[in-house]
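Journal club prep — side note

Before the paper discussion, L.F. wants everyone to see what a predicted structure for a comparable chain looks like in token form. Sequence:
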Amino acid sequence: MNQNDHKGPVVVIYVHGLYGSVLVNRKTGRVEYSLPTSLLRSAIFHGNRGHNVALPTTWSKSTADNDNTVPIQDKDDLIPTVPIRFTHKVIFDYLESLRDSGNIELHTPVWDWRRAYEETEPKLANDIDAILDRYPRRRAVLITHSTGALVSWPSLNRRPGDFSAWVNLGGCLGGGNAFLKELLNGWGAPGVEFLRLFSARTMCTFPSHFGFFVNHNDGERFGGPTGKETEFFVVDKETGDKVFLTSKDIDLHNHEDWKKFRLGMYGWNSKDRITDEDVNHLKHTLKAARRFRSKHYALDGVSPDSDAYLLHNRSEYSHLRIINYSSDKSPTHLAYEVDIAAETVDVTKSGLTALGDSTILSADWRYIPGNLKAEIVLSEKDSLHIPMCGDEGLLDLIGDLLGVPQNGTTRMPKESQSFLASWAGIFIVLSAIAAGVAFQKL
């Protein structure tokens, strides 16, 4: 076990979340996805809907998974290269300033946020193992944002003795069904959805977006305020009360329910022809999603607070300082309304919201498998899911955790921080560009 008996810079591993890495064509060297470039393309070229980053919908190869052989999605020529700085510039500038001053050894492993988590997590684990093995006598500090927690927890769980702390920013270890809207309509920049970054067809090629759906086997943590909610409900016509459904009513890992309730591609316009390849892709995607959640986050019939989620004796995690950092002040999607008689789900809007950071429910970002002890820290000024990464209080927290004096010399001017951490500034610029282009076409 790593006892941290080596004097030297603190090892810091930062793992990005969904959409968080630049995608480059390994053959041509062309950048196919980055921010803000991809948003600018969407604003200027309205026909661009991310088709250049869509994954193949064929699963012709297989790999071993314990004693089973499971299919894997065919590859394309795109590879993740570096984390995207644009939306996380403040925290990256701060960490890099600590690196440049010799206070930390900074590592930023990347993962392909499009592919199935059961495929990307082991690859990320290999990268994290290689980093840890370089410093056999130093414990690392893990910092994750959003889905970065989902793909990093298995590594921390395997090697708790090699970490001293985990800063979990807006972690999404609980399940949810918010992506049903995007899988039907595509993904647009929040607040200005006409800036369509990915079409629905492109979104449906990404197995990662199916990896959040809840496993209803008593082992899944769900973020409702009372713990009795599920991600779907019907309204009692007589009382007006919301009646929450179970997987017996609608199971998002069951392909037949997607077809029955016209979810995802089954709800597309008739002009979008569904092929046998599309159907097989959806079936493989749902099975891969269920396998991953069942392995790490939803053990069958086991309470999410059980020691069964820990790969080691609980005492081997006792040295870990876990900090869950996010907000619980913003309305956040909780459930969609279902019309059982018409066999439809209204995914045009959230039928029910609860408190969270606008993306992750409060109960979800506070959750750590096995109910490991964690400090709960609320972000400054009720910052939302992405802007929170630029909170001055967060940087102070990280600095204190790393033992770095807070003298302000490593900080950007507050005016620069607030603009770079604010989606509002981004949207104003892109909206103006889109409006200008539209005006020129009149």
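L.F.'s comment for the group: Confidence is low (pLDDT under 50) at residues 412-424, 434-442. Keep this in mind when we get to the figures.
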